[in-house]
DNA sequence: GAGAGATTGTTTCTTTGTAAACAAAATTTG
DNA sequence: CAAATTTTGTTTACAAAGAAACAATCTCTC
């Protein structure tokens, strides 16, 4: 009587269920999903917010540096920044010292908007570890920072 | 003397540097990057391996169930499976009990290939937590499993 | 059992992200 | 300092992934 597997919980993941890379991907997808469930109406996506936030903390930062820090490829960064420019959120300036580079700064409107968005964004981020104790959350943050190389 | 930020380590991330969702994304990107550095020549990507692996553990599993478990949307799953079919890795069968569904099974060649690939894949996965102590690795696995809802 | 609604998979369109080739400017090296 | 190399950003082409509309089938309700 070989009933086919019917529901997701019955699926045998084998060793995959404790593979770190796999779990990281699943966790990230899950968080993303939750984001769009609860904040899908906001007009900034997590990636967009992160970029704008980092620009706000580092005015005049260069595209390349921004990309390195947020792990966004140059080609993609170009598109993101142009998108922001089209929306009037950032200004680009080519510095005299290095005329290949582009320095990015928030417009005043964007700066205000990022501060506003930071409220719901970080509220959400704080809630990500909801089903963990606060000690566990601290621990997880620490471990992820190590994986990422932020220590 | 307002030197612009020059290198990635000087970038101020503000509160972002301990935001769980952000860290999860960064960690996942980092792992992905490392995968392609070390195993970029293999002809199976992590996502592809995971799907084939799960099929191998659950022969005759349905596309929908597979997608639910691996968090892959139906539309995307269709493309993945067709790709596998074109490569002769899986066979599709519409069961009589439910003629909307599709049951997926590995071809014998694919089954062998997955077993072979499992070696380097799980070796890689084991190495993901390299710069963590083995206690930390266990802890991280546990916490991620909680986030994902695998407990 | 006939119709309303839900599920399953596919198709088409769009978005997000990467890869490779390129141009311009800076740096290195001989 | 001139030629070779590297860095920075852009463009073009493509791959990965999601959204929405659709068709077929199944289930539920009356």
From TrEMBL, chains A, B:
It comes from the Bacteria. Transmembrane segments: none annotated. Residues 17-149 form the HTH marR-type domain. SMART domains: HTH_MARR (SM00347). Keywords: DNA-binding, Transcription, Transcription regulation. This is MarR family transcriptional regulator. It comes from Neorhizobium turbinariae.
């Amino acid at each position: 009587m070989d009933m086919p597997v019917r529901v997701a919980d019955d699926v045998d993941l084998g060793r995959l269920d404790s593979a770190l890379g796999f779990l990281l991907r699943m966790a990230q997808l899950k968080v993303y999903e939750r984001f769009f469930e609860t904040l899908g109406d906001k007009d900034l996506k997590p990636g967009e917010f992160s970029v704008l936030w980092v620009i706000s903390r580092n005015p005049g930062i260069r595209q390349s540096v921004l990309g390195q820090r947020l792990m966004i490829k140059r080609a993609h960064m170009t598109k993101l920044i142009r998108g922001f420019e089209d929306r009037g959120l950032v200004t680009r300036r080519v510095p005299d010292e290095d005329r290949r580079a582009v320095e990015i700064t928030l417009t005043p409107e964007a700066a205000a908007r990022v501060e506003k968005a930071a409220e719901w964004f970080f509220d959400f981020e704080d809630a990500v570890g909801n089903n963990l104790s606060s000690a566990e959350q601290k621990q997880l943050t620490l471990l992820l920072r190590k994986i990422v190389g932020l220590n």
